[in-house]
Structures are given as structure tokens and as C-alpha cells.
Design brief:
The protein is built from 13 helices and 15 strands. It is an alpha/beta fold and 404 residues long.
Length: 404
């Protein structure tokens, strides 16, 4: 792809695609590991990983081979039939989680939709028609479809799409007293992210999820954990809730599960999953052979190749340490560094996060914003110390220009 063709791609994207994204003027052409190459020949160090999607980096050999082999066998048959890689993936997820059953879909938002439907169906079956409300957190993010959007505690995403669906109420994140007070007779479930990622990498008190679990048990309501961004090794455990030593009743997954291919999943215990019977819920493309074969290769690699240990005990701690070093150099620009594993945030003050992201692109670094003014770092789980050092050097130069 020449520079002329690259520019044409950018122009045609503006011309033919709906303007639902504030895209950067770059057309990425190919990638390998931690790096991607644009059509005009520029190389970028990727510390956002497709928003925590490319968990094994770009075009990991095991993931690519699994996709290629499956593409030669079978592309799609629908869920009218049993699908071999779907069954294998479900078994692997169940054996490595709290869950007994899995429902596959195509995205995180779809997984949240399925979770809300299952919680309501279970509660109506068990307790009657008046159990339907879901308590979620302020500043949360659960997706863009109407139910997922209605469960998202950020009004800026609602504008122009109201009225939101009924049956959702919001409480401050990391506030147990507010949560207790919000659980009335109509509540069927509590829906939380273990870490609010889109909300600005907000980490609750270490005892928070444990106490939430106790409240849900006492009130006899379900606990749904949205692990779409925090799951699949991102925080140094396969699932972020494992840090708290608790289990949910329902969990949603997507992003890193497919290693770059679109897939979503909703997991539940047998007690809850029994509420879904034939006809309760469905997805034509959910759990298709291509997505499941790719996700299976991704998950097997993460479980077997020491990737999670790399994310938590090594690179996660190293990344935080290096980011804190940057903070010490620019105390006037950086309010706080926080994170767990390889999901980290740097909260800025006095400088626009989006301008930092643009400056980073200009020097060959891909990062992104989260929350109000937080730089989000979610590199592939295969990141090395050398990659982190290179990123820190680039970031330091950028921030020095802003300070000047």
C-alpha cells in the first residue's frame, strides 16, 4: 500500500462509513506481536491492543494456525447443530471457572444483554414477576446496545437515545452502604465490573467484591460480574474476581477471549442457567466454528504458556513501577498511577488526554484515553521489559514537551 493508497483509504472511510468513531487518520495494514504497520509504512508500538482484545499480540502463530485450519473445515452451520470447537471451548471455560454452563454470542454488549435476560428470567421463575430490577454502578460501562446502554452508569452515552429501558438503578462504585440501600424487593441482580476500565481504571477497595457477594447472598439476589475487559488474564488472574476470592452467579466475557476475533460469552452456574430453555435466547452467529476455534487456541495458550504469570508477577508490576517513575518526573501533570496486572491508568491534570494520545501516535506509540482524563495502558499479555522501556521513553519525551 503506497502513501497515496493509504490516504485514499482514510478519505473513503470518511466518505462511506457512518461517523460513529473519531478515528485517527491512520490505516493499519498488518501486525505482528507488539507492533503494527500502517499503509504509509509507519510502525507503531501497540500498548492498547485493540482495546484489550489482542491478548496474545497481533497474529500470534497459534491463533492464526487455528483460524486457518478451521476456515478450511467449516465456517458456519448455526446453533441448530452441535459445533465441535464450541463444545471444546465451553468445556475449557467451565473447567477453569466457577461456571457450569456457557452461552456464546458475538460481543461484550451481547453478553451483557444475555446476562440481564438470564437474571430476570431466573428471578421471575423463582420469585415471581416483580423481580426485574438490576443495580449497577455509576461511571460503569457495559456496552452500546439498548439494554447494555441502560445498564451503563454514564449519562453522556445516553444522550439522544432516551428513554432508557426501565429496571436499572445506579449507586456509587465502591460504596457498600449505597448498594445495600438500593436493593429493594424488585431487584433481581447486581451488575458490576471488578475494575471500572472505561470509567478510568477505577479499582475498588480490596474487600469490596467480597462484601458485595455477602450482600447479594443476604438479599438473595444474583451477582453478575462484567469481565469483558478484565477477564482472560488481563489482571494477572484468569478472571479479575479471583483476586477477591469470590465467585459470581453470572459472568460476561468478550474482548481478549478471541485473541482478535469477535466473540462474547455469558457464563453461569447450573442453578441460574436452568432458567434458559430452548427458545429463551439465541444468536445465529454466536459460538460459530471460526470464533470458537480461535478463542480455544487463545485460551489454551494463555493457560499453558505462562502468559498470566507474565502479565501479573512480572510485566504488570514492572509497568506500574515504570509509570510511577514517570509520575515522579512530572508531578504537575500526573495526579495518579493505578492498575492491576496489565490494565493500568495514568490520570492527568492540566493536560488533555486526547492530545497526549495524538502526540504518542506521532512518535509511533498507540495508547488511548479512559474516563475523564486517564491514559489507558492495556498492552498484549506477551509484552516484555524491553517493550515497556521503549514505551516509557517515548511517553517521557511526550510529557516533557507538554510540561514545557
Amino acid at each position: 500500500m503506497t502513501s497515496m493508497k493509504h490516504d485514499t483509504v482514510v478519505e473513503n472511510s470518511h466518505k462511506y462509513l457512518m461517523h460513529t468513531y473519531a478515528r485517527h487518520p491512520v490505516a493499519l495494514l498488518k501486525g505482528r506481536g507488539m507492533r503494527v504497520l500502517s499503509g504509509d509504512g509507519r510502525e507503531y508500538l501497540d500498548f492498547i491492543a485493540g482495546i484489550a482484545v489482542n491478548s496474545l499480540g497481533h497474529c500470534h502463530p497459534k491463533v492464526v494456525v487455528a483460524l486457518q485450519k478451521q476456515a478450511q473445515r467449516l465456517l458456519h452451520v448455526s446453533n441448530l447443530y452441535h459445533i465441535v470447537p464450541q463444545t471444546k471451548l465451553a468445556e475449557l471455560l467451565v473447567k477453569n471457572s466457577f461456571a457450569d454452563k456457557v452461552f456464546f454470542c458475538n460481543s461484550g454488549a451481547e453478553a451483557v444483554e444475555a446476562a440481564v435476560k438470564l437474571a430476570r428470567k431466573f428471578s421471575k421463575d423463582e420469585f415471581g414477576q416483580d423481580r426485574y430490577e438490576v443495580v449497577a454502578a455509576q461511571e460503569s460501562f457495559h456496552g452500546r446496545t439498548m439494554a447494555a446502554l441502560s445498564a451503563t452508569g454514564q449519562e453522556k452515552y445516553w444522550r439522544g437515545f432516551g428513554p432508557m429501558l426501565q429496571g436499572f438503578r445506579f449507586v456509587p462504585f465502591n460504596n457498600l452502604e449505597s448498594l445495600k440501600a438500593a436493593i429493594g424487593q424488585h431487584v433481581c441482580a447486581v451488575l458490576l465490573e471488578p475494575i471500572q476500565a472505561e470509567g478510568g481504571i477505577k479499582i475498588p477497595h480490596p474487600d469490596y467484591l467480597h462484601r458485595v457477594r455477602e450482600i447479594c447472598d443476604k438479599k438473595n439476589v444474583l451477582l453478575i460480574l462484567d469481565e469483558i475487559q478484565t477477564g482472560i488474564g488481563r489482571t494477572g488472574k484468569l478472571f479479575a474476581h479471583e483476586h477477591s476470592g469470590i465467585t459470581p452467579d453470572i459472568m460476561t466475557l468478550a474482548k481478549g477471549l478471541g485473541g482478535g476475533v469477535a466473540i462474547g460469552a455469558m457464563l453461569a452456574t447450573d442453578r441460574v442457567a436452568k432458567a434458559f430453555v430452548p427458545g429463551s435466547h439465541a444468536s445465529t452467529f454466536g459460538g460459530n466454528p471460526i470464533a470458537c476455534a480461535t478463542a480455544l487456541a487463545t485460551l489454551e495458550t494463555i493457560l499453558e504458556d505462562g502468559v498470566i504469570i507474565n502479565a501479573a508477577e512480572r510485566m504488570g508490576r514492572y509497568l506500574i513501577k515504570r509509570l510511577e517513575g514517570v509520575q515522579s518526573k512530572f508531578p504537575g501533570l500526573i495526579r495518579e498511577v493505578r492498575g492491576v496486572g496489565l490494565l493500568c491508568g495514568m490520570e492527568l491534570v492540566g493536560v488533555d488526554c486526547s492530545k497526549v494520545v495524538k502526540a504518542a501516535m506521532d512518535v509511533g506509540l498507540l495508547i488511548a484515553c479512559a474516563g475523564t482524563n486517564v491514559i489507558r495502558f492495556s498492552p498484549p499479555l506477551i509484552v516484555t521489559e524491553e517493550d515497556i522501556d521503549e514505551m516509557i521513553n517515548l511517553l517521557t519525551k511526550i510529557l516533557a514537551d507538554f510540561e514545557a
